Amino acid sequence: MPEYDGLVEPKSAPPALAALTVLLAAATLLAVGILVARGWLDRPQPVQIVQLPLDTSMKVAVRGAVQTPGVYTLRFGDRVDDAIRAAGGLTSDADERAINPAARIADEQEIWVPRRGEPTAISVSPPSAAATAGRVNLNTATVSQLVALPGIADLTANRIIESPERVGPFRRVEELRERGIMNERNFDLVKDRVSAP
What we know:
Strand content: 5-15%
Helix content: 25-40%
Protein backbone atom coordinates (compact mmCIF):
# COMPACT_ATOMS: atom_id res chain seq x y z
CA MET A 1 0.00 0.00 0.00
CA PRO A 2 1.41 3.40 -0.94
CA GLU A 3 2.21 5.75 1.88
CA TYR A 4 -0.10 8.71 2.36
CA ASP A 5 1.76 11.98 2.88
CA GLY A 6 -1.27 14.17 3.53
CA LEU A 7 -1.74 15.35 -0.02
CA VAL A 8 -4.70 14.44 -2.11
CA GLU A 9 -3.81 12.06 -4.82
CA PRO A 10 -4.73 13.54 -8.22
CA LYS A 11 -7.59 11.87 -9.96
CA SER A 12 -7.51 11.26 -13.65
CA ALA A 13 -10.05 13.10 -15.85
CA PRO A 14 -13.09 11.15 -16.85
CA PRO A 15 -12.76 9.68 -20.34
CA ALA A 16 -15.63 11.83 -21.70
CA LEU A 17 -13.87 15.06 -20.63
CA ALA A 18 -10.59 13.94 -22.17
CA ALA A 19 -12.34 13.09 -25.44
CA LEU A 20 -14.07 16.49 -25.42
CA THR A 21 -10.75 18.29 -24.91
CA VAL A 22 -9.17 16.41 -27.81
CA LEU A 23 -12.22 17.12 -29.96
CA LEU A 24 -12.09 20.88 -29.14
CA ALA A 25 -8.38 21.02 -29.92
CA ALA A 26 -8.94 19.26 -33.24
CA ALA A 27 -11.85 21.61 -34.10
CA THR A 28 -9.72 24.65 -33.27
CA LEU A 29 -6.88 23.42 -35.47
CA LEU A 30 -9.34 22.69 -38.27
CA ALA A 31 -10.90 26.17 -37.96
CA VAL A 32 -7.48 27.85 -38.02
CA GLY A 33 -6.52 25.76 -41.05
CA ILE A 34 -9.70 26.76 -42.88
CA LEU A 35 -9.17 30.43 -42.07
CA VAL A 36 -5.59 30.32 -43.29
CA ALA A 37 -6.59 28.48 -46.44
CA ARG A 38 -9.56 30.77 -47.05
CA GLY A 39 -7.47 33.86 -46.46
CA TRP A 40 -4.94 32.56 -48.94
CA LEU A 41 -7.61 31.81 -51.54
CA ASP A 42 -9.33 35.19 -51.07
CA ARG A 43 -6.19 37.21 -51.74
CA PRO A 44 -6.46 39.18 -54.96
CA GLN A 45 -4.68 37.49 -57.79
CA PRO A 46 -2.25 39.60 -59.81
CA VAL A 47 -3.96 41.22 -62.78
CA GLN A 48 -2.13 41.92 -65.97
CA ILE A 49 -3.29 45.12 -67.58
CA VAL A 50 -3.11 45.09 -71.32
CA GLN A 51 -3.27 48.50 -72.91
CA LEU A 52 -4.96 48.42 -76.25
CA PRO A 53 -3.85 50.94 -78.83
CA LEU A 54 -6.25 53.84 -79.04
CA ASP A 55 -6.97 55.76 -82.19
CA THR A 56 -5.76 59.17 -81.13
CA SER A 57 -5.37 60.49 -84.63
CA MET A 58 -7.54 63.15 -86.17
CA LYS A 59 -7.94 64.85 -89.51
CA VAL A 60 -7.46 68.60 -89.77
CA ALA A 61 -7.74 70.85 -92.82
CA VAL A 62 -5.06 73.53 -93.04
CA ARG A 63 -5.78 76.27 -95.56
CA GLY A 64 -4.72 79.78 -96.47
CA ALA A 65 -1.18 81.11 -96.24
CA VAL A 66 0.68 77.82 -95.73
CA GLN A 67 3.20 76.13 -98.02
CA THR A 68 1.07 73.04 -98.75
CA PRO A 69 -2.64 73.45 -97.91
CA GLY A 70 -4.51 70.21 -97.39
CA VAL A 71 -5.93 67.69 -94.96
CA TYR A 72 -3.46 66.29 -92.45
CA THR A 73 -3.54 63.49 -89.91
CA LEU A 74 -2.41 64.76 -86.54
CA ARG A 75 -2.44 63.40 -83.00
CA PHE A 76 -4.89 64.36 -80.33
CA GLY A 77 -3.41 67.10 -78.19
CA ASP A 78 -1.61 68.74 -81.11
CA ARG A 79 -1.78 72.50 -81.50
CA VAL A 80 -2.31 74.90 -84.38
CA ASP A 81 1.48 75.17 -84.65
CA ASP A 82 1.72 71.40 -85.28
CA ALA A 83 -0.89 71.64 -88.04
CA ILE A 84 0.95 74.52 -89.72
CA ARG A 85 4.23 72.59 -89.56
CA ALA A 86 2.49 69.58 -91.14
CA ALA A 87 1.43 71.90 -93.98
CA GLY A 88 5.04 72.91 -94.58
CA GLY A 89 4.99 76.10 -92.54
CA LEU A 90 3.74 79.61 -93.23
CA THR A 91 4.19 81.47 -96.49
CA SER A 92 6.04 84.76 -96.50
CA ASP A 93 2.79 86.75 -96.70
CA ALA A 94 1.08 84.95 -93.78
CA ASP A 95 -0.31 87.12 -91.00
CA GLU A 96 1.22 85.35 -87.99
CA ARG A 97 -0.45 87.73 -85.52
CA ALA A 98 -3.89 86.57 -86.68
CA ILE A 99 -3.46 83.01 -85.40
CA ASN A 100 -2.86 81.45 -82.01
CA PRO A 101 -0.22 78.75 -82.56
CA ALA A 102 -0.76 77.40 -79.03
CA ALA A 103 -4.49 76.72 -79.50
CA ARG A 104 -5.53 73.08 -79.30
CA ILE A 105 -7.06 71.56 -82.40
CA ALA A 106 -9.98 69.17 -82.76
CA ASP A 107 -10.89 66.42 -85.19
CA GLU A 108 -12.43 67.72 -88.44
CA GLN A 109 -11.34 71.27 -87.67
CA GLU A 110 -10.35 73.72 -90.38
CA ILE A 111 -7.46 76.05 -89.65
CA TRP A 112 -7.36 79.12 -91.84
CA VAL A 113 -4.14 81.11 -91.91
CA PRO A 114 -4.93 84.54 -93.36
CA ARG A 115 -2.57 86.57 -95.48
CA ARG A 116 -1.69 90.06 -94.34
CA GLY A 117 -4.67 92.30 -95.01
CA GLU A 118 -7.26 89.46 -95.07
CA PRO A 119 -10.02 89.27 -92.45
CA THR A 120 -8.90 87.31 -89.38
CA ALA A 121 -12.29 86.33 -87.95
CA ILE A 122 -12.02 82.83 -89.39
CA SER A 123 -8.47 81.95 -88.36
CA VAL A 124 -9.49 78.82 -86.42
CA SER A 125 -13.02 77.46 -86.57
CA PRO A 126 -14.53 74.03 -85.94
CA PRO A 127 -16.54 72.63 -88.87
CA SER A 128 -19.83 72.39 -87.01
CA ALA A 129 -19.75 75.83 -85.41
CA ALA A 130 -23.43 76.44 -86.20
CA ALA A 131 -24.52 73.27 -84.44
CA THR A 132 -22.35 73.92 -81.39
CA ALA A 133 -22.58 77.72 -81.19
CA GLY A 134 -22.04 78.85 -77.63
CA ARG A 135 -20.99 75.39 -76.45
CA VAL A 136 -17.57 74.54 -75.02
CA ASN A 137 -15.73 71.84 -76.97
CA LEU A 138 -14.56 69.15 -74.52
CA ASN A 139 -11.49 68.39 -76.62
CA THR A 140 -10.19 71.95 -76.91
CA ALA A 141 -11.53 73.64 -73.76
CA THR A 142 -9.39 75.45 -71.22
CA VAL A 143 -9.81 75.20 -67.46
CA SER A 144 -11.26 78.71 -67.32
CA GLN A 145 -13.87 77.87 -69.98
CA LEU A 146 -14.90 74.71 -68.13
CA VAL A 147 -15.12 76.16 -64.62
CA ALA A 148 -17.41 78.89 -65.97
CA LEU A 149 -19.99 76.13 -66.57
CA PRO A 150 -22.39 74.96 -63.84
CA GLY A 151 -21.35 71.79 -62.03
CA ILE A 152 -17.66 71.98 -63.01
CA ALA A 153 -14.98 72.96 -60.50
CA ASP A 154 -11.18 73.01 -60.98
CA LEU A 155 -10.71 69.30 -60.25
CA THR A 156 -13.40 68.23 -62.73
CA ALA A 157 -12.09 70.68 -65.35
CA ASN A 158 -8.60 69.20 -65.04
CA ARG A 159 -10.00 65.66 -65.32
CA ILE A 160 -11.85 66.65 -68.50
CA ILE A 161 -8.71 68.16 -70.03
CA GLU A 162 -6.50 65.18 -69.05
CA SER A 163 -8.96 62.48 -70.13
CA PRO A 164 -8.48 62.82 -73.90
CA GLU A 165 -4.72 62.66 -73.47
CA ARG A 166 -5.06 59.38 -71.53
CA VAL A 167 -8.07 57.74 -73.18
CA GLY A 168 -8.48 59.52 -76.50
CA PRO A 169 -10.63 62.40 -77.69
CA PHE A 170 -14.22 62.77 -76.63
CA ARG A 171 -16.55 61.63 -79.42
CA ARG A 172 -19.80 62.24 -77.51
CA VAL A 173 -20.80 64.44 -74.59
CA GLU A 174 -22.12 61.36 -72.74
CA GLU A 175 -18.54 60.19 -72.31
CA LEU A 176 -18.29 62.58 -69.35
CA ARG A 177 -20.46 60.05 -67.47
CA GLU A 178 -19.07 56.93 -69.14
CA ARG A 179 -15.49 57.85 -68.22
CA GLY A 180 -16.53 58.53 -64.60
CA ILE A 181 -15.62 62.22 -64.78
CA MET A 182 -19.02 63.59 -63.74
CA ASN A 183 -21.96 62.34 -61.74
CA GLU A 184 -25.48 62.33 -63.20
CA ARG A 185 -26.60 65.52 -61.45
CA ASN A 186 -23.68 67.64 -62.68
CA PHE A 187 -23.84 66.07 -66.12
CA ASP A 188 -27.48 67.17 -66.42
CA LEU A 189 -26.39 70.72 -65.61
CA VAL A 190 -23.70 70.86 -68.28
CA LYS A 191 -24.72 68.48 -71.10
CA ASP A 192 -26.41 71.17 -73.20
CA ARG A 193 -23.49 73.58 -72.78
CA VAL A 194 -20.64 71.37 -74.05
CA SER A 195 -19.90 69.64 -77.32
CA ALA A 196 -17.72 66.84 -78.64
CA PRO A 197 -17.17 66.16 -82.33
